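Morning run. Coffee first, then this:
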Amino acid sequence: MAALRDAGIHDERVLAVMERTPRDIFVPATFGEHCWDNVALPIGHAQTISQPFVVAAMTQALELNERHKVLEIGTGSGYQTAILARLCRRVFTIERHQSLLRDAEKRFAYLRLGNVTSRYGDGTRGWAEPAPYDRIIVTAAAASLPQALLQLLAPDGILVAPVGGERRDQVLMRVRQSGGRSACEELGTVRFVPLVPGLPRHNPIQRDLPL
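And here it is:
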């Protein structure tokens, strides 16, 4: 955690949760020796598990408390989801790859995260039924701020998302809603896979990863 502190992560709750969440169970066995490195790692379907610093920075930017209801776009390995679940009241998470979602759900069960509700679907359309959300986090980059998701945000909510094209650095944006107005803030450059609308044409169920 010293490296995260040195990099600017100061939220003690985020640091504590990062320290006690086993990143190794979210990483394919092929990359097990690198599970604690501060790098992004492939998890299949051209997706990645973000580097610990990026996970910590995005989580810190959300300014979470135990009363918040959070929408996560892009479950992926479930690592970011697990961090969120230990800092808020409930997480609703959407993933467009069925096999990734099934593996993530097994990890949630293993960690006994009873406040996570997951869905297979198109994250660009959000999840309207439980809205509004106190916080929304997007773990893939859109060309512009996703307006459909902003409409699901509570009046005093925060959305954190990478914005930019696939082949260049993106900007991590934080949007605060207050008094019926939105204020945008740039938090630095990041690299994420693109936020893709729709569902894959072929989405085979791959063998589940061992815990």
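The chain has a mean pLDDT of 92. Good start to the day.
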